[in-house]
Design brief:
This protein is mainly alpha-helical and 575 residues long. It has 30 helices and 5 strands.
């Protein structure tokens, strides 16, 4: 086919062939005026060649503007460029990029096109590489403004590649890496975002304020701790530890570094230090009298305070954040989602749904796929709890903006929803192979207990006992509640009464509350329901009856489905 196209081109003469080759460098479409300048000829001189190419069916006139043309088929451009070397094509791209820069260099809507040509010429030397870096960065910023986050990430990557060829300084490459990290995090690509943060931290070197700025990028886009479960964040941890040690306490960067440290502590098993460290960050921001910094540090405090031990502190911080002036829609949504979880924990499910509806309205104009998915997960969790059919329908609107398949960051939440669904449908035993595979992939303690639960129901007592006894409890973070609940019910089935008593004691402080996992990822009934089933197993029928009556009351008021039925069945056993 290429030979056929080249034969037709050759029949038009060398002058026309040379013009078409230059036009092919421009891409599928080109402007006659631009081609004239690239070729160093008058526009009128090109008309015979263009007319001949039109007559031959190789190009067609574009209806958009006078002098605009498009190639009839991608095979035509492939054929035209196939007879030219890479060096020739790079030189042609450089000439075309120069013309486009002079004509449209101040237009953001042309930055990506100009960048593409400079990038194709970047290996010719530092000067075109520098132009490629600058225009790719401009294209990335323009893509961010129009919320084309994947396009922005691609352009930042191209800018970084060009920066290497241009011999750009570390400070310049740092800015590009920060841009890449921000675009990836904003797109919900958390693992890739953290890779870019590590790159930026390396480029920051001994500039600790810049290191803090890079670390802060990782924190800004959601409700949950911004790292996938099990991700190694030692580079970030060491950088922020150093920043807190060496930076003066009276500058914004120190407060930011301390706030980031609290989030990292929540990821790395330092839950006991989170409240103290994040409180110090808030106090430092207050002393500086910087409202924007205070809003940021309060958000980071929300990220750091994971799990049941921070139920009331989370609500208090969320309300304080919502009271701040000039609060962005993004921070408003984040604070509201935490308050949704708090309302559910106290049984006020109708109020939580009303607030979640208000949050959805803000999300429609926010273009934040991460927050959109986190809100959808809260809807799914509440629907599962109340027995609303087809709860996963809430994911459909988000699928257009966020890939579910390649985002390990969201895996824990999705697994919790699947496990809760199987539990309610009494199908854990039928899905043992899937549970085993997920446990191998993630190493989550909660899945080990789910597997023990399922194996106990199947009569595989020895395997179930081994899992129960050998799997340590997770830290008291965002999946502690569900993991511990699964541990309790596996222990009840296996008659491991020491474990039953241990979990009863752990859950006892939360009596009177609904059992909420994460920010309403799942709602596994009322704590009193689990406490009552524990006491039943321990032989304390009177104590079980008191807890289960309270569970039934709470769950009736909350409109629960499966968990209300389960609490009633357990209560019947107390008589």
């Amino acid at each position: 086919m290429l030979d056929v196209v080249l034969h037709r081109v050759a029949g038009l003469g060398e002058e026309t062939a040379a013009l078409l080759e230059l036009a092919a460098v421009a891409g599928d479409e080109f402007e006659a005026r631009v081609m004239a300048e690239v070729a160093g000829r008058d526009l009128g001189d090109l008309v015979p060649s263009l007319d001949a190419a039109l007559a031959a069916g190789l190009i067609r006139e574009s209806g958009a503007r006078l002098g605009g043309y498009a190639f009839a088929h991608a095979l035509v451009t492939d054929a035209l460029l196939s007879r030219r070397s890479r060096l020739w094509r790079a030189g042609a791209h450089a000439r075309l990029a120069g013309v486009l820069t002079r004509a449209y260099g101040d237009r953001d809507d042309q930055a990506a096109t100009i960048a593409r040509h400079w990038l194709a010429a970047a290996e010719l030397g530092p000067e075109p590489a520098r132009m490629a870096m600058d225009y790719a960065a401009r294209a990335a910023r323009a893509a961010m403004r129009r919320h084309a986050l994947d396009d922005a990430a691609t352009s930042w990557q191209e800018a970084l590649a060009a920066a290497e060829l241009a011999g750009a300084e570390a400070a310049e490459r740092f800015e590009l890496a920060v841009g890449l990290a921000e675009s990836r995090y904003a797109a919900g690509r958390y693992d890739e975002g953290y890779e870019a943060v590590e790159q930026a931290l390396a480029l920051a070197g001994d500039d600790l304020e810049q290191a803090v700025r890079a670390a802060d990028i990782a924190m800004g886009h959601g409700v949950w701790v911004p790292f996938r479960h099990g991700l190694d964040v030692r580079v970030l941890q060491e950088s922020m530890d150093r920043a807190v040690r060496e930076l003066p306490r009276n500058i914004p960067a120190w407060a930011s570094a301390q706030a980031v440290r609290a989030v990292v502590l929540a990821q790395t098993g330092g839950e006991d230090e989170v409240d103290r460290v994040s409180s110090q960050a808030v106090e430092a921001a207050e002393r500086l009298g910087d409202p924007a910094l205070l809003r940021r540090v309060l958000h980071l405090r929300l990220l750091a305070m994971q799990g049941q031990d921070f139920i009331d502190q989370l609500a208090e911080t969320s309300r304080r954040l919502l009271a701040e002036p000039d609060l962005s829609s993004q921070l408003t949504v984040i604070a509201q989602l935490h308050l949704v979880a708090h309302l559910v924990e106290y049984g006020r499910v109708a109020d939580a749904r009303e607030l979640l509806t208000e949050t959805d309205a803000l999300l429609r104009d926010l273009h934040n796929p991460t927050l959109a998915l986190q809100a959808a997960i809260a809807h799914v969790g509440l629907d599962l709890f109340q027995g609303v059919p087809d709860p996963t329908r809430h994911f459909e609107p988000v699928r257009a903006t966020l890939s579910f398949s390649d985002l390990a960051y969201f895996e824990v939440g999705m697994l919790a929803i699947r496990a809760e669904t199987l539990l309610q449908e009494d199908r854990l035993g039928a899905e043992v192979e899937w549970i085993e595979e997920m446990l191998r992939r993630t190493g989550l303690a909660g899945l080990a207990y789910v597997l023990a639960y399922a194996l106990a129901d199947l009569g595989e007592r020895e395997r179930a006992l081994r899992l129960l006894r050998e799997t340590p409890l997770p830290p008291r973070d965002y999946h502690w509640a569900m993991a511990t609940m699964c541990r309790l019910h596996a222990a009840i089935r296996l008659g491991e009464l020491d474990v039953v008593r241990e979990v009863y004691d752990a859950f006892r402080p939360f009596a009177g509350l609904l059992h909420v996992n994460g920010t309403c990822t799942t709602v596994e009934g009322a704590y009193d329901g689990h406490l009552g089933e524990a006491l039943l197993a321990l032989g304390d029928r009177a104590g079980a009856r008191a807890h289960l009556r309270e569970a039934v009351r709470i769950l009736e008021e909350a409109g629960a489905g499966y968990w209300l039925s389960r609490a009633r069945q357990a209560l019947d056993k107390c008589s």
